[in-house]
Predict the 3D structure of the following.
Amino acid sequence: MKVYLNGTFLEHTEAKVSVADRGFLFGDGVYEVTRVVNGNFFREQDHLDRLDAGLADLQIRLSSDLRNSIPGISREILQQNNLLEGEASVYLQITRGAVWPRTHTFPEPAAEPTVYISASSFTPHTKLHESGVDTIKVPDVRWARCNIKTVNLLPNILAKQRAQDEGVNSAIMIRDGVVTESPNANIFGVKNGTLYTFPESNYILSGITRKTVIDIAEKLNISIKFIPISEHKLYELDELFFSGTTTDIQPINRVDGKPIGAGKPGPVVRAIQAEYHQMLRSAESKPKKAV
């Protein structure tokens, strides 16, 4: 697999970062994962806008030339890995860079940011989208800036691993008595045909697929309320589902062994799934941008 690291395309086994890199030492960086269908990037500008916001929040400064080159580099990585046909995902990570000595403040002068981009083939979780999944509840113990897509993901990893250890697909995070999101996806509930989801804030990531679901709801005239789902009313919902770049639209059947609604995917999530898949197919048919 070929990757891009700090201006060079090379085999992934040859890619190295310094032990002084602040991403390695502190998790001081941000990342994005973008879905690609037959060489066409799905909602690429939304991912780039979120990247810019995260870099600004962390005060990591890229030169304008480097920032503007990211779309072209991403396409070159796809080409070098023969991923212009079928489904793929592109991973982009930017850290504050390598500097010594280790310090809890931003280095002065600023280090050159570390930029890493890779691509891999992707197979949608079609069977899970059709059948739905089981989950568990876990406390949301993450920091209070979940809106920044940082590489600090240890609480997410522990939650996802706990779900795997208990034999279910994922976890539903609870903070202050309400549902926030999952370790790697946003969450929507359905009651009487209306969507409910945690409002955009510092406690959740502003997911690109979440934005797509909101767009779909508007198109299908599905009412949506940005109101947190109470843990105590979780089992009163008719439907519940995840949304994410590599999760797509994934129905949730049970939480802690208790059914949500009928315990199977319902009509609202099915309608949203169908429209989302149509949007992906539309992306597939778009002409590819020049590499």
Q: What stands out?
A: The helical segments are 22-26, 44-58, 64-80, 126-131, 154-165, 208-219, 267-285.
